[in-house]
Design goal:
With 252 residues, the chain is mainly alpha-helical. The chain is 71% helix and 5% strand. It has 2 domains: 109 residues, no CATH class; 97 residues, Serine Threonine Protein Phosphatase 5, Tetratricopeptide repeat, CATH 1.25.40.10. The protein contains 12 helices and 2 strands.
């Protein structure tokens, strides 16, 4: 304030030619003015963007809270029949459907896992149907097709995920792609370390290594199984397998 008075006095005394600005606007006033100018200049674009954001939010809410739950419910109703045939080892019916089944609303033609996976791909049940379809194809000798469906299963279930990956290993073994089989067996063993799937796929990997006469790697897999999963069913008679690969590989 004292500086402003001094400026005025200096002007009045003739020591300053003119007073252009005695008091500058505050930073807050300048920011507000700038924003107001920006909005006025871009009002139409900003309003359109706001409407678009609201529309996207509405679509997302509809999808997540109305449409997707409805699809999940439908998929669950359909998969019940396919799973019942799968459990009876009727893999072709479970895979392709086409038979008449009774429902609370009357008879209908059931969907197989293939159709469920395609029609309900956005749902968890539809993703799970890929796994079942892959296993059905594996059991009926269609190994290449089985791999395609098993690769489409992308849920992170602790037990099903490693089994799906290991099944890709099984299909590759059937196709005599032993290196690929080993890769998937080892991946399955590490996907979810537990006392069921890990020793199962370690043993399969060791057996696949034996098929390639890679006895040191087979021995390493067998010994890991013995040391880390000694109480698993796969560890029964593990010393016999260890002795065998040592003898075949001349390993001391």
């Amino acid at each position: 304030m004292s500086e402003e008075i001094e400026q005025i006095e200096r002007v009045e005394s003739g020591n300053e030619p003119a007073v252009k600005n005695i008091k500058k606007s505050s930073a807050g006033d300048m920011d507000f003015g700038g924003l107001e100018f920006f909005y006025e200049k871009n009002k139409k674009a900003i309003n359109y963007a706001g409407v678009a954001i609201l529309a996207i939010a509405a679509i997302f809410s509809f999808y997540k809270f109305y449409w997707l739950p409805g699809e999940e419910k439908e998929a669950n109703n359909e998969v019940f029949f396919a799973q019942s045939y799968f459990e009876k080892d009727s893999f072709l019916v479970a895979l392709n459907g086409g038979v008449s089944v009774r429902t609370s609303e009357g008879p209908k033609t059931m969907m197989g896992f293939k159709e469920i996976a395609e029609n309900y791909s956005a749902t968890k049940t539809g993703k799970l149907a890929n796994y079942y379809a892959g296993i059905c194809l594996l059991r009926t000798g269609k190994f290449e097709e089985a791999i395609g469906y098993l690769e489409n299963y992308d849920l992170k279930d602790e037990m099903v995920a490693p089994v799906a990956i290991g099944a890709i290993g099984d299909a590759n073994m059937e196709l005599n792609k032993v290196d690929d089989a080993i890769k998937y067996y080892l991946k399955a063993a590490e996907q979810s370390t537990n006392n069921f799937t890990t020793p199962l796929f370690l043993k399969k990997a060791a057996f696949a290594y034996e098929q390639k006469a890679n006895y040191p790697e087979a021995l390493a897999a067998y010994e890991r199984l013995k040391n880390e999963y000694s109480k698993s069913s796969e560890a029964r008679e593990i010393d016999k397998y260890i002795a065998r690969v040592k003898a075949l590989g001349n390993i001391q």
